[in-house]
Amino acid sequence: MAGTGLLALRTLPGPSWVRGSGPSVLNRLRDAAVAIHGFRETEKSRWSEASRAILQRVQAAAFGPGQTLLSSVHVLDLEARGYIKPHVDSIKFCGATIAGLSLLSPSVMRLVHTQEPGEWLELLLEPGSLYILRGSARYDFSHEILRDEESFFGERRIPRGRRISVICRSLPEGMGPGESGQPPAAC
Ligand SMILES: O=C(O)CCC(=O)C(=O)O
Ligand SMILES: [Fe+2]
Q1: Tens of pLDDT along 80-101?
Q2: Which architecture characterizes domain 16-174 according to CATH?
Q3: Residues with beta carbon < 5 A to ion ligand 2?
Q4: Where are the chain's structural domains?
Q5: pTM of the model
Q6: How far is CA 38 from CA 4, 31, 146, 158, 180, in A?
Q7: CB of 76 closer than 6 A to ligand 1?
């Protein structure tokens, strides 16, 4: 995403941040009660024009023309000591594609096959990079962001600082955009 003017990714006033350690109120996006440590997060649907241009590039790169996106974009701010434990995003609330733009600190995302734990891979998420989870990576592998003490990419130490991710998700098949904002009563 070089040359996209990422510094322009500024948000307009909107919903307030949810801050915490442990399960998040945005956990409807993830299966199980996923522990995230040292974070704040929010969902945003209003962006500046410059930010919208960046998000449109992300969406053009990651999503097919037939895919509808969740109406809000998820912004997750992990402090230097923050981390995300392994999980698979909820199939009830999130469709076939998850695309995340990483900002500020580099980090390592580990994917582990949910049935074959010996099958795993790690992604080095450089600031300004975009990862796309779809197909088997989306459904058959858990993903996590390693804590600073475990943050290695192969032999290479990747010291963790504050990291912000901007995550776009498609809607589950058959769910209309109007239904995307509210979790069903069961959740
Ligand atoms: O920060 C990221 O890039 C991933 C966040 C994540 O896995 C989630 O919110 O479910
Ligand atoms: Fe996730």
Answers
A1: 999 999 999 989 889 999 999 9
A2: Sandwich (2.60)
A3: 89
A4: 16-174
A5: 0.83
A6: 28, 19, 12, 18, 27
A7: yes
